[in-house]
Amino acid sequence: MANNKIKVAELFAGVGGFRLGLEKHNNYDIVWSNQWEPSTKVQHASMVYENQFGSQNHSNEDLNEVVTRNIEEIPDHDLLVGGFPCQDYSVATTLHNSKGLKGKKGVLWWSIHKILEDKKNKPKYLFLENVDRLLKSPASQRGRDFAVMLKSLNDLGYAIEWRVINAGEYGMPQRRRRTFIVGYHKSTEVYKRISKSKKTDWIQEKGTIANAFPLEKINKLEEFEIKGSLEEITTEFNKKGKLSPFQNTGLLFKGKVYTTKTSPNYNGKRTVLGDLLQNGEVTDDFFIKDNKLKTPKSILEKDGSEKIIATEKEMWEYLKGSKSILRISKDGFKYSYSEGGMIYPDALDNASRTIITGEGGKSPSRFKHVIVSDRGLRRLTPIELERLNMFPDDHTKLDGVTDTKRAFFMGNALVVGVIEKIGEALYNQING
Fold first, then answer.
1. C-alpha distances in angstroms, 52 versus 31, 63, 78?
2. Could you tell me if 57 and 429 are in contact, meaning their C-beta atoms sit under 8 angstroms apart?
3. According to the model, what pLDDT value does residue 301 have?
4. pLDDT of the residue at 320
5. Best CA proximity match to 45, nearest among 32, 56, 34
6. Cis amide prior to 138 (ω within 30 degrees)
7. Cα–Cα distance between 138 and 142 in angstroms, integer?
8. SS3 sequence, the chain?
9. Residues 6+ apart with CB under 8 A from 233
10. What sign for the dihedral angle of Cα 288, 290, 293, 299?
11. What is the CB neighbour count within 10 angstroms for residue 128?
12. Cα separation, 360 vs 385, whole angstroms
């Protein structure tokens, strides 16, 4: 594949974070993309995607329906990428046309699986993203979901490396932890290199993720096999274990897992929240005012006395602060609810906290960012949220897309710089 662009299919594309990161290098060509939001009538994310990248080869249809109808509608590609939804990956049925196992209907992991299993020309490489709790879900069988994923990919002939990366620990402007997964089919040269490598060396320095994001020295790897069928893993995996066997870093090769807890090794430049603020261009509706609340809120203090919150500013302070509140259940039982304080306002000399989907809108909230500016306390603007994910300014700006929706997109998005660095390392690995 030397000197040729790597052909990419982008699933669960959102507003195009994967594409932005990969296209920075000019070594990747997105030949097909898919974005479908099942819970909304108007497909705003897909509209933003098309506005930025055009509608050619873009699908705004439920991926389950595409893969069920005709898998070859998805063009041949070398690399399959996507931030797939975090769901329950357990197996529900046994035999599927004697081809092996099929998972629960509607669970989009099994749509990825179907592409890898059924396409005549299978993707040689995978680059996937998910929340960090993927490695330890569900609570009743810690690590089972990831074990099902790894076992199913192993059965399809892939070696897999993974790492939980906090973008802020590598100088990026947001402390956002996500699991990144890179896979190589057994037909590739990379797979053969893994076979010949000492597994500690691969995880420490030779692997794609290690090249993109250097680590402190690794001491010892935990090793275990993922045994049994997918149904057996679904029902039995780690039933009695309190902790997941999967650490934040690891490798799966020929059914065997090599995993360890790692720490980042980074001494470069750091971008902080204060570096990314819009100065003097922010409209009044982002500022926190001392207006009276339409309906004052009554709070029962721990000692049973009543406290009245009357203004918007007081409400922000209350939600952000530490508290111990007396609550009474439906059957009259009294109990105390406590929570610690948030840093308020948010520090400007550090990478920001993780952006959440509810970041937009004027209503006071415990989790929205609030900063001090020269005109007082205010929320973050859509452009500032885009910058925290390393998107271009106004990437999500489009007629009919509200500021609240733009904030929602950034709460769902990934930090583009992480994709850019892994994309560069993967290209070098493939052409190594």
1. 15, 21, 23
2. no
3. 80
4. 95
5. 34
6. yes
7. 6
8. CCCCCEEEEEECCCCCHHHHHHHCCCCEEEEEEECCCCCCCCCHHHHHHHHHHCCCCEECCCHHHHHHHCHHHCCCCCEEEEECCCCCCCEEECCCCCCCCEECCCCCHHHHHHHHHHCCCCCCEEEEEEEHHHHHCCCCCCCHHHHHHHHHHHHCCEEEEEEEEEHHHHCCCECCEEEEEEEEECCCHHHHHHHHCCHHHHHHHHCHHHHHCCECCCCCCEEEECCCCHHHHHHHCCCCCCCCCCCCEEEEECCEEEEECCCECCCCCCCCHHHHCCCCCCCHHHECCCCEEEEEEEEEECCCCEEEEEEHHHHHHHHHCCEEEEEECCCCCEEEEEECCCCCCCCCCCCECCCCHHHCCCCCCCCCCEEEECCEEEECCHHHHHHHCCCCCCCCCCCCCCHHHHHHHHHHCCCHHHHHHHHHHHHHHHCC
9. 91, 144, 147, 148, 151, 226
10. positive
11. 24
12. 10
Active site residue 233: no
Write down the catalytic residue from 1, 86, 131, 348: 86
Give the number of other CB atoms < 10 A from CB of residue 361.
Answer: 15
The CATH number of the structural domain formed by 6-268+415-430 is 3.40.50.150
> Strand 249-253 vs strand 28-34: parallel, antiparallel, or unpaired?
unpaired
Judging by DSSP bridges, how do beta strands 125-131 and 79-83 pair with one another?
parallel
Contacts (Cβ under 8 Å, ≥6 apart) of 110:
89, 102, 103, 104
In the block, which residue shows the tokens 């609240």? 404
CA distance 415 to 177: 10
Question: Rounded to 5 degrees, what angle do the CA atoms 350, 369, 170 make?
Answer: 30
Q: Of 1, 52, 103, 113, whose CA–CA distance to 413 is shortest?
A: 52
318 token code pair: 């209350």
CA 308 remoteness from chain centre: 39
Tell me the two tokens of residue 10: 């982008």
Residue type, 424: E
Could you state, in order of their start, the residue ranges of all structural domains in the chain? 6-268+415-430, 273-401
Specify which residues 30 forms β-bridges with: 8
Burial-class residue 358 by CB neighbours within 10 Å (0-12, 13-18, 19+). Answer: middle
Q: Which residues of the chain have pLDDT under 70?
A: 1-3, 92-106
